# Entry
Amino acid sequence: MTTTLNPASTRYGELIARAVRICVAAQVMDFNGHVSGRDENDPNVMWINNRHASRSTLTAKDVVPFDIAAGKRIGEGIEPPSEWYIHAEVYKRRPDVHGIVHSHPEFIRALSAVGEILRPVDAIGGYLPGEGVPVFDSPVLINTAARGEAMAKALGVAEALMLRQHGAVVTGFSIENAVVHMICAEANAKMQYQSLQIGKPRYLHGEELKTIASEGGGKHGTTKYWTYWEETARKAGALNGL
Amino acid sequence: MTTTLNPASTRYGELIARAVRICVAAQVMDFNGHVSGRDENDPNVMWINNRHASRSTLTAKDVVPFDIAAGKRIGEGIEPPSEWYIHAEVYKRRPDVHGIVHSHPEFIRALSAVGEILRPVDAIGGYLPGEGVPVFDSPVLINTAARGEAMAKALGVAEALMLRQHGAVVTGFSIENAVVHMICAEANAKMQYQSLQIGKPRYLHGEELKTIASEGGGKHGTTKYWTYWEETARKAGALNGL
Amino acid sequence: MTTTLNPASTRYGELIARAVRICVAAQVMDFNGHVSGRDENDPNVMWINNRHASRSTLTAKDVVPFDIAAGKRIGEGIEPPSEWYIHAEVYKRRPDVHGIVHSHPEFIRALSAVGEILRPVDAIGGYLPGEGVPVFDSPVLINTAARGEAMAKALGVAEALMLRQHGAVVTGFSIENAVVHMICAEANAKMQYQSLQIGKPRYLHGEELKTIASEGGGKHGTTKYWTYWEETARKAGALNGL
Amino acid sequence: MTTTLNPASTRYGELIARAVRICVAAQVMDFNGHVSGRDENDPNVMWINNRHASRSTLTAKDVVPFDIAAGKRIGEGIEPPSEWYIHAEVYKRRPDVHGIVHSHPEFIRALSAVGEILRPVDAIGGYLPGEGVPVFDSPVLINTAARGEAMAKALGVAEALMLRQHGAVVTGFSIENAVVHMICAEANAKMQYQSLQIGKPRYLHGEELKTIASEGGGKHGTTKYWTYWEETARKAGALNGL
# Structure
């Protein structure tokens, strides 16, 4: 099968490069990690940063198209990260997902190392489930189909998944939404971590959580947050040469 | 009722833009949060940053006048933040208050998440009551009159209020004083937080607290502190283009 | 009594301005705090930064000479800090002291708030006594002769003193040595604080501490450390315009 | 005995200067610490930064050749650090070692001060032994042959050694590998430290650790990591003038 890319889809290169740079500037991604987006012109195509290009200087040409069903890069050039299974297996099972971020944020990892589950403690984590996010109970690389499937099953219908002693996977209804979800997940993890250092945090739940979740998030919330972090990254010079 | 603004009151735009930038530079405000000031030419008018403009690049034109009794923006243009009730309800009840800051400082939030009350541990928190500040026991947005009233009642005659898992509201006899109070509240919260990590802090109280409070604070203390943080913000480039 | 200053003593202005800037760059001094030095041409004269000038932009002209016995600034102009008693009372009692730093380092204050005594945990704190430094048990400003005397007695023959919930006073055989002592005291306090967060630190003592103390410190150690922090401050631009 | 240096060996000067700068930029080395490499043209020769030159501005001319068997600098000029015994004693016993780093990373020191052993908690520490690294139980300078021998025996066949309340020594199959090992050891120590603040970390072990170790590390992992930190250092200006 040959997948023909819609010319309009080239916009994904620039958008994903920008998304990765914003993640690096917001300190939720380092020299590993990837952002992908599902092609709106072909739901079987995803775009993802390649395995070699530095995350902090990524440009559109470092983003590659990928055939989800075939499990293969489209066209020639540098391959996607060995963990592309994370993205492909989720896109296969979740038609509602159009953006995914996988990275290794510090506070999410610290919580996972002691068996604490990421749970909402603040409005910034208001999109997280009150009972806590699911956990994939293994620290190994997700670089085989079997591991990818197991991980996608652990995620289920959730928007965020902890990978024990490894990192996190978050989804979104768009690339921007997935980036916002990752930044908010780590911000909530930091507050949760800081609270745990001095006591027993009161987690948000029930009616209170419902109210908070309804007052933030969604399309409006995504635009507001994305704009803020994009602007912050730009002021710090993190988008230069994009 | 039409409120006619005194031409001299335009100075509030520049002052509040400066105050917001100083709060951002001092890391007690991020992409949300607001500073307001009561108009000395009309106690029923307050000035506040609008809901959209980026806090880190705010200028005078992004500050809007507001009719407190009528609960409405004066003139046309971008609206104030949805949480303007915080400010209006306090100005209605507290003729001594001429400046208010609401934001989400990290250490105040962390204390609140585990039920610790902000109490003075250092000279920098010398203006706080020995028994601790009052707490508004809800993390939801204060975007209705009922929530604003409840919050204002929780504040009572105090100068600082914790909003559980949300942030803080502080008042001042001037805009500058409110800013200084917020920065000092968070600095004290940080020391309290750090102390709680390794033991049981000895809180300042009684005669000792009285002596400390009398040696700092007030008009003289406000000028000294404001000048320091303004200068620090300027050196960091945070006031460029103001 | 009129004190006539030796023309050669003007070198103290530049040296103290440099010392204060190095303390600020090394994060052991903020907008308060002072460095003084005893005049080698007249042991009754000390030089100290004045009460108003910003610590981060201090220059030689902001440093004032002071008559220790008379308890008065020499000449006209801006006064020394209200806490000049700290310096005068120590110089009166300690002919071996030629430099003093008073400031409010974060980790020393945090330790003091929970009753932990500063004790050597690392080679960088090797000059501290094994049993811990003395503590002045009050957080008030030391702005009277009585408080200055009490503080000087608490210091005794030691080189470092904790001021409970206030800060620290350290002495040196030179201005450079006092600055090095303050930076090392705070570096040791940070390691002590970090260790206390996760367990019970093993404090250095006995023969081990003697060996470590003999291998660092003194005139050679002072020059090495001062040079490092001076160079670090210069690279960060902290000495510009000195 | 006169050791004649192979002209090709001059490349070690530039490489070690670069390695030291990368360590400083990655915050695993401060104003003390050293990097050495065994000369591939003569296994009895090692190259090491001299004792005086600032670690953050080191250049090739500040790196000196050293005769391991004779225990003497080759040629004239500034001497190596007084702790050259660390390097010489390890090279004598370990033909597999071609690079060594000794420094005083903050989190490794904090762990050592409370008796915690560095153990793998994350993929970044996957090269560490599951049971934890060996510990040299003394904080004194390793500036004699006896101390160097004792330390080398404590290290044994391991790749990383904690020096109690002092720092760490790590080895590598190349200079680059030793640098990567030190940065990864400290990154793991930080995660271990952070986890210990809020609970009991689950250490990696058994099959899980084997899988992780086999998926990272080695020659390929070294190149990837070294490139990332070198690039990070360059962007921060840390390699200017090299």
Remarks:
- Residues 175-198 of chain A form the longest helix (24 residues).
- Helices of chain A lie at 11-25, 85-93, 106-113, 145-155, 175-198, 206-215, 218-235.
